[in-house]
């Protein structure tokens, strides 16, 4: 439990009490201490089951990018592999083989120049994968400057719209984060602005394919061209890492002519989230490098105490193999055409729903879901009776989790709602959401003014958090 919530609950001394109807005997259970004795499995199950009824309905969670539905066969495979530790490749060689197959499939999907030479690994999610990509960039920079004996601090250039994991990376691994600010109607990185922040200590530039703020793609090819020009003028050779947490599993299927991946020689590494538009339940991400040179060998550790030589590059050691198996199942089950159909349906639902919401009157679209199936919208000027935070709270009364939040520095005046359309969110559910939105608007329009602000928004922006302007190293 987070520290703040633990403190809030500290004053609660009443133990949990089970209704005897549901248990074999009346029992009291302490909330924040281990019980003195054991209990029947069904009793423990019922206690936990009943408390979990207070959670929101995951299928109605339009804030998260994470998969909330998968086929029963994938769940069955995950159950069969629940005990398998992904790090034990010598003990579970076929699970390790499926991981390798997934890496090669992704290398081909992302147009690696030689899929056999591309290197990669599974991770616990795209945040870990992004940090591995950042660490490889930093180590390559260190190798380049080792002969000079420099003590300079490395920096990483990115748009201020990056997911919060990149701020964590910069803080945890002592890298200066240089953010390209939002300006006017530009809500992500600009190639020109990014190049201006680069110098001899820049380890790389992060390009986001699918911004968490509004779902838009950043212009990776234009960024690569700007960095090519920078190298011609100054000699600085700065690589790109593509954070494709969402878009790297959308663009190959729906935007095949968009050049963003290893077709660009300057793209050194890519990460994605298997448990987002990779369609796996939470717990798997992927990090790939274009070749062995892009991943310094001194970052790879070799252990033998599990039996056999186990090369590993990860922030985590033990982690579940079940999600890797489920990823391979999805690749095998759907193939290219199946993924294309799933992602196209998500985009169709997103663009139609965005158009319907724009037609209601009070709202104005920031994006329309035509890139990643994600769109953001704000309240039009002149609508003074309610705020986006009022709308979010009203929809929550019906079970819909639609986040409301403000944009980062330079556009903190912009408050939006965002909807993520995932596999399983159908046209039918979109119609039900639209009907509920119309219903709450009828009530909100009669308010004398907004009743809620950003302070009432809750904590479910899912990566669209405002970066901390006071953090040391901020450029």
Q: Can you walk me through this structure?
A:
This protein is α/β, with parallel strands linked by helices. It folds into 3 domains: 14-55, no CATH class; 74-330, Aspartate Aminotransferase, domain 2 (3-Layer(aba) Sandwich), CATH 3.40.640; 346-456, Aspartate Aminotransferase, domain 1 (Alpha-Beta Complex), CATH 3.90.1150. It is built from 12 helices and 15 strands. It has helices spanning 3-9, 41-52, 72-80, 93-109, 126-145, 164-172, 191-196, 220-234, 251-254, 322-358, 388-396, 427-444; strands at 16-17, 28-29, 119-123, 155-159, 176-180, 202-208, 240-243, 267-273, 285-289, 301-303, 310-312, 363-365, 374-379, 404-406, 415-420. The strands form 4 sheets. The protein has a 7-stranded mixed sheet with strand order 3-9-8-7-6-4-5, sandwiched between helices. Helix 8 links the parallel strand 6 (202-208) and strand 7. Helix 3 packs antiparallel against helix 10 (322-358). The longest helix is centred in the C-terminal third of the chain and has 37 residues, at 322-358. The protein is globular. 42% of the residues are buried. Mean pLDDT is 89; it is low at 305-310 and 469-475. Keywords: Decarboxylase, Lyase, Pyridoxal phosphate. It is an enzyme of class 4 (lyase). It holds the Pfam family Pyridoxal_deC.
